[in-house]
UniProtKB/TrEMBL annotation:
Cell inner membrane among keywords: no
Record's protein name: MFS transporter
Record has Transmembrane as a keyword: yes
Subcellular location: Cell membrane
GO MF assignments: transmembrane transporter activity
Keyword field: Cell membrane, Membrane, Transmembrane, Transmembrane helix, Transport
Length: 422
């Protein structure tokens, strides 16, 4: 049966093309995030400026999320994804131009900084469409019986691209400079666009095409907030990402606390994703459907402990290990959450449900970056990270105690039901 085959989803050609497209896109995207974080802190030496980057992305991503979900459910997914990638390539090109030596030499720091913030803002607008489109497209590429396996491979590919992007982002800053690194990112995004067109157009499964935006959004939001398993998983992950995120402050730790430079900065970023990749690939062999709720709670609790350990550390290798373990715990929680969403969401509502997910979790990455920057400004970087880890632990304990449905969630029956459908 599909559930016993760790390579079930890879037997579908279009899914492999999808993975390659996603790898190139996320590899470039994660490099771009690292490079911009480094450049902004280098220009300002102000941790709050890093928080503003997150704020500039979350404003459009959060406010457009529900509307984007409606558009996704009403649209053909392949072409919509291609349009988003094409527009994102112009943002990458703009960031390259803003960091080009000729521009930096003649423009003021404030002008360059505001230009970066503006492009990040438009990137947040596109971000609201990326998540729902990709989530919906996966379900149209593979049959239902391999949804969990496809979710694991897709998330693992995302993390693999993330780790390599983080690693090479730091190294490329050291080797060739910020502007040339951003030029490489532009090329990667264009390549991902080319591979997107190797995927065939997909049917629109929504039986209520032409439904008003108001009615469409109301149905999507109601579905999420009345499904305790989905709502609990999203809430738990949102709080963990909001308070437990350390990525926005890694440049501060690398430059001012651990004093390891751009190469060490790349290693710190990469260690998180390396841990995630290791745990995600492990879940392809050890399915997490049984007692999924308890496993989700435990994994995020371990994540919070690791974040606290990182905040207390002043030794580079201890920090790397703490981040690696936090990534491993986060990887397991991501696979469980994506599996819950894939198995519990009807086909015609995937765009809207994914949009609510992006509001809960995706946008909390940027809001978490702002929270981290503000907390670091007020408390100092180390205390800010410890505070975030502590809040994560308290959230896990509280939600685990109150949400019995999540605590006792088991996906085995859902898995078998989808297997029989095919």
């Amino acid at each position: 049966m599909a559930k016993n085959d760790p390579y079930a989803a890879l037997k579908y050609k279009e899914f492999n093309i999808f993975l390659l497209m996603r790898f190139l896109l996320i590899f470039g995207w994660s490099m771009q995030f690292i490079v911009i974080e480094w450049e902004v802190y280098s220009l300002t030496k102000d941790p709050l400026a890093l928080g503003i980057i997150g704020l500039m992305e979350i404003i459009p991503a959060f406010t457009m999320a529900l509307f984007a979900g409606h558009i996704v459910d009403q649209s053909e997914k392949r072409n919509l994804l291609a349009l988003c990638i094409a527009l994102f390539s112009f943002i990458s090109l703009g960031l390259f131009c803003l960091t080009w030596d000729a521009v930096v030499a003649n423009w003021s720091t404030k002008t360059i900084l505001y230009g970066i913030y503006t492009l990040v803002f438009f990137g947040g607008f596109l971000r609201s469409f990326f998540g729902p489109t990709i989530f919906s497209l996966i379900a149209l590429i593979v049959p239902k019986k391999v949804y969990p396996n496809a979710a694991t491979w897709s998330t693992s590919t995302w993390k693999a691209a993330n780790v390599l992007g983080a690693l090479f982002g730091g190294f490329f800053i050291h080797w060739i400079g910020v502007d040339k690194t951003l030029c490489i990112i532009f090329v990667l995004v264009v390549l991902s666009l080319i591979f997107t067109f190797r995927i065939k157009k997909k049917p629109i499964l929504n039986p209520k095409r032409g439904e008003s935006v108001k009615d469409s959004l109301a149905v999507g939001v109601k579905f999420v907030f009345t499904n305790k398993a989905i709502l609990g998983a999203l809430t738990l992950d949102m709080i963990a990402v909001l308070f437990g995120g350390t990525v926005a402050l890694l440049s501060v730790f690398a430059q001012d606390i651990l004093k390891v430079g751009s190469q060490g900065f790349g290693v710190l970023n990469a260690s998180i994703s390396l841990g995630s990749i290791a745990s995600m690939f492990l879940t392809t062999y050890l399915p997490i459907s049984k007692n999924a709720g308890k496993k989700l709670l435990v994994s995020i609790f371990i994540f919070g402990l690791c974040i606290i350990a990182f905040g207390l550390s002043s030794v580079f290798w201890v920090s790397v290990v703490a981040l690696f373990l936090s990534g491993a715990a986060d990887g397991i929680s991501m696979v469980i959450r994506q599996t819950i969403l894939q198995l519990k969401t009807p086909d015609e509502m995937r765009g809207r449900v994914s949009s609510v997910n992006s509001m809960f979790v995706g946008s909390s990455n940027e809001l978490g970056a702002f929270e981290s920057g503000l907390a670091a400004k007020l408390l100092g970087p180390a205390k800010a990270v410890v505070f975030g880890g502590t809040m994560t632990l308290l959230t896990v304990v509280g939600l685990g105690y109150k949400n019995k449905v999540l605590r006792e969630l088991d996906l085995t029956e859902d898995y078998e039901a989808h297997d029989k459908d095919d």
